[in-house]
Design goal:
Helix content is 0%, strand content 58%. The chain is mainly β. The strands form 8 sheets. Strands 14, 15, 16, 17 and 18 form a 5-stranded antiparallel β-sheet that branches. Strands 5-4-1-31 form a 4-stranded antiparallel β-sheet, with no helix packed on it.
């Protein structure tokens, strides 16, 4: 069955990417190819996009500086995006955003600025006042950790707390979110992985486990909920036992049945496949699969569960794989041309 997609891109040449898309792209996935690609909204560097409310609302960062932005849109049945307004992201180069399950709040973080902001969302989906602003301070030990770099924000599916992944500090922080939208750090819950460089995480469907992908040392860490915090259980290389000079990880996803974890490796341009047993909290590397494109960023499972899509930023294509949940096999079906794709969001 065909499904609509929104694709986040880069539109400008930056030190790490030759962006040349025109904004947020709309497209359809027909099960094999990405088709009907068009510009849904002209936005500068909309590198991360979130879709909510059954596809009727969309939000995008504007990864620009010295003060980036966050834009809101309503989405019609024909895929048209209508602007609902823009607000300052509260810092340089916002890299991620997320919407609270209640639809009341939007949280965003800036990579260069190292800040976290929370905004109210109105009934029509537009962005209201900023209710929280946090400036991270400090640095890590790796050369890439010269300052805070907020790379992802996720709401804990069990507690509703805001989980913030800071690559620059080498930490994952838990913040409580009050009824007024204020944030309060729970320092005792902070998970520190240091120079590993945490980038993105994904919760297991059971809410008891999460997988933390580390960019700087190409590892996937398994964390388990123990009481009101998470503890590190294991760490496995995203390329198995091989070293990964020059490799940087990007995305981590969990299959709907929770048995398979997939990650993207930029550098050797592969997908790392892992097996997971929730009953025993056992994470095992299975294999790497060549993507066939350069710099795979985001990776998503189609709503049908039997297709995997990888956004290859530097080769201007989205690569499609057939996915067998039983064997964990990925079979490359082909690639569709898409300019500078970064984020893939099914509608």
């Amino acid at each position: 069955m065909a499904h609509d997609l929104l694709i986040g891109t880069y539109t400008q040449r930056l030190p790490h990417v030759d962006g040349h898309a025109a904004g947020i792209l709309g497209a359809r996935f027909d099960g094999t190819d990405i088709v009907d690609v068009s510009v849904a909204a002209e936005v500068p560097n909309p590198s991360w996009v979130a879709v909510t409310d059954h596809g009727t609302r969309a939000y995008a960062v504007e990864e620009t500086g010295p003060d980036g932005g966050v834009s809101a849109f309503s989405r019609s049945a024909d895929g048209t995006l209508r602007p609902l307004g823009r607000v300052s992201s509260g810092g340089d180069s916002p890299a991620h955003l997320t919407v609270h399950p209640s639809g009341r709040w939007l949280a965003t973080g800036t990579y260069v600025g190292g800040t976290v902001s929370v905004f109210t969302l109105a009934d029509d989906g537009s962005i209201g006042e900023r209710t929280a602003f946090v400036q991270h301070e400090g640095h890590g030990t790796h050369p890439r950790q010269e300052s805070p770099h907020v790379h992802q924000l996720v709401f804990d599916p069990v507690t509703g707390e805001l989980v913030v992944v800071d690559l620059g500090l080498g930490e994952v922080r838990w913040y409580t979110l009050s009824e007024s939208g204020a944030l309060a750090l729970r320092p005792e819950a902070t998970v520190t992985v240091g120079a590993a460089g945490p980038r993105h995480l994904a919760f297991h469907p059971d809410g008891r486990h999460l997988f933390l992908l580390n960019e700087l040392d190409s590892t996937l860490a398994l964390l388990r909920r123990e009481g009101d915090r998470f503890a590190l259980v294991a760490s496995v290389g995203t390329r198995g036992s091989e070293s990964a000079p020059g490799n940087q990880t990007a995305a981590v996803r969990v299959s709907p049945d929770g048995r398979t974890v997939l990650v993207t490796n930029r550098g050797d341009d592969t997908i790392g496949v892992f097996a997971f047993d929730a009953a025993t909290s056992a994470l095992e590397f299975v294999r790497v699969v060549p993507v066939g494109g350069r710099a795979p960023r985001d990776l998503v499972l189609a709503l049908s569960g039997d297709r995997v899509l990888a956004a290859c930023q530097d080769s201007d294509e989205v690569v499609v794989f057939a996915f067998d949940a039983g064997s964990r096999e990925l079979t490359r079906l082909g690639a569709s041309p898409v300019p500078t794709p970064v984020c893939l969001a099914f509608v």
